[in-house]
Design a protein that fits this description.
The strands form three sheets. The chain has an eight-stranded antiparallel beta barrel. It has helices at 2-15, 148-155, 162-258, 263-336, and strands at 20-28, 33-44, 47-58, 61-73, 79-89, 101-110, 113-122, 132-140, 356-365, 369-376, 383-389, 392-399, 405-410, 417-427, 433-441, 444-452, 456-464. It is an alpha+beta fold and 467 residues long. Strand 15 (433-441) and strand 16 (444-452) form a beta hairpin.
């Protein structure tokens, strides 16, 4: 009976894929406290290995430990997970290297939910008694929302987990396909822009040619009008000359007729005739001077029109040269523009609108206020973030560490949705910028891991829970 009882468990463990991220709690019998606990199980060439991660809070300070572990399948179907060395921690007191933890876990599968549960114990040493307790874990598909994987990323060991390595390869293929698509779209855009530029150049050339033809036509009209004016002035001068000669002719005829008059009558008329002749001469002289002045003004006007036409041509040429200089300058600026495209700005979240915002988790809340606690989720390497709520800055340039950055937000009853954006101000010495946001919603507690860089913002969406 005992043999038959263990066969299904063994077959279950062998048939089921146990690789992946397992997340849950570790209960310590001595302290009667629960601790956050994660195991990442990898499989290479038929051999299981992995890492474990434990973290807990003392006051507002977060402590963690990352260990290498060995994973074995026992003959009775149990899964044995044993410590194989501490690789990273921030414990206030260095742990004893001789103390190792052994987990004896049972795999259970129900529909799509897989769990590992069972007892753990540490070995007894000269200085320490054995510790006991229990572990309860559930496999999670979204391993990026973990404490373990970001730590391994910063340690350069994340690809030692087969499921992380496979996911990265899959993402790389998808990114390559996206890049090819973006390149094709860019080429289409460039070709369209080039065609539009050629069209604009042709239109500009036509407009320029039309302007030149118009100027030439205006010049021709101006010359024709000037010629007409000169001809009219000549005709007027001839008429005025004829008018001046007519009184002289009349005066001669009159003089001949008056010779037969008496000397007395001639004496009476001499003074009047002389005055008339004088006035006629003055009038003729004035009209001649007026004609000369008018001709002079017309010539000056013609010169001014010619000067205006020449100035317009020069302005058109200057505009063309200026346009070419601007185009040349814009081309030079595009060539000399830094590849990164980042602007130096001392304001918090200065380029938030320029970065891509990615929703990393959605949370339902019910309270009218939320208490936020912000930590670094990996090695303490100088990560700095600013936090915005619905576009408004609530935390500016906060350095992430093991101590909590606390902030309480108050939500009006009529507000059903909040978007919180984590903006990476600096990446510290190890990219990307990773953090842990612990949210207290009344009695409920949520842990959210986020990751961002200088191209992407991390977004967390809060939806009010409907009663």
């Amino acid at each position: 009976m005992t043999f038959l009882f263990f066969i299904p468990l063994c077959v279950l463990a062998q048939e089921k894929d146990i690789t992946g991220l397992w997340k849950g709690t570790l209960f310590n019998d001595s302290t009667q406290k629960y601790y956050k606990y994660e195991i990442g199980i990898s499989k290479e060439k038929g051999k299981y290995t992995g890492f474990s991660h434990t973290w807990f809070l003392i006051g507002d300070t977060q402590y963690f430990g990352v260990k290498k572990v060995t994973v074995k399948l026992a003959g009775d179907g149990k899964i044995l997970v044993e410590d194989n060395g501490l690789i990273a921690n921030n414990y206030p007191i260095p742990p004893n290297k001789g103390v190792k933890q052994l987990n004896v876990l049972t795999l259970n599968a129900s529909d799509s939910i897989m769990t590992l549960a069972g007892p753990f114990a540490t070995n007894r040493t000269k200085d320490f008694h054995s510790l006991t307790g229990s572990i309860s874990l559930q496999r999670k598909n979204d391993f990026w929302q973990s404490s373990l994987v970001p730590h391994l990323q910063e340690l350069g060991k994340d690809e030692e987990l087969s499921f992380v390595k496979e996911e990265k390869q899959s993402l790389a293929k998808a990114d390559a396909a996206d890049r090819e698509l973006q390149l094709a779209e860019k080429n289409i855009s460039i070709n369209k822009e080039k065609a539009q530029n050629d069209k604009d150049k042709q239109a500009l050339a036509k407009a320029k040619l039309a302007a030149i033809e118009k100027q030439q036509q205006e010049k021709l009209v101006t010359k024709q009008e000037a010629a007409k004016k000169i001809e009219a002035e000549k005709d007027l001068a001839k008429q005025e000359t004829a008018t001046e000669q007519e009184p002289k002719k009349v005066a001669g005829e009159k003089e001949q007729s008056e010779k037969i008059l008496t000397r007395q009558e001639m004496a009476k008329q001499t003074a009047a005739e002389k005055e008339l002749a004088k006035q006629t001469a003055i009038k003729g002289k004035q009209e001649k001077e007026a004609t000369f002045e008018k001709e002079k003004q017309d010539k000056t006007l013609a010169k001014q029109e010619a000067a205006k036409t020449l100035a317009a041509e020069k302005l058109l040429q200057q505009a063309e040269r200026a346009k070419k200089e601007i185009a040349k300058k814009e081309t030079a600026e595009k060539i000399n523009k830094p590849a990164t495209g980042f602007k130096i700005n001392t304001e918090p979240a200065a380029d938030v609108a320029l970065r891509k915002t990615i929703v990393q988790q959605t949370v339902n809340f019910s309270a009218d206020s939320l208490q936020l606690s912000l930590y670094d989720n990996g090695e303490i390497d100088g990560d700095t973030v600013s936090v915005l709520m619905n576009g408004q800055l609530i935390l500016a340039k906060q350095g992430l560490g093991i101590k909590a950055i606390k902030h309480t937000i108050y939500i009006p009853r009529e507000m059903d949705r909040i978007e919180m954006v984590m903006y990476a101000e600096t990446l510290g010495s190890i990219a990307p910028n990773t953090g842990l946001l612990v949210i207290k919603d009344g009695k409920d507690l949520y842990e959210i891991r986020f990751s961002g860089d200088l191209q992407k913002n991390a977004s967390i969406v809060f939806n009010r829970r409907k009663e």
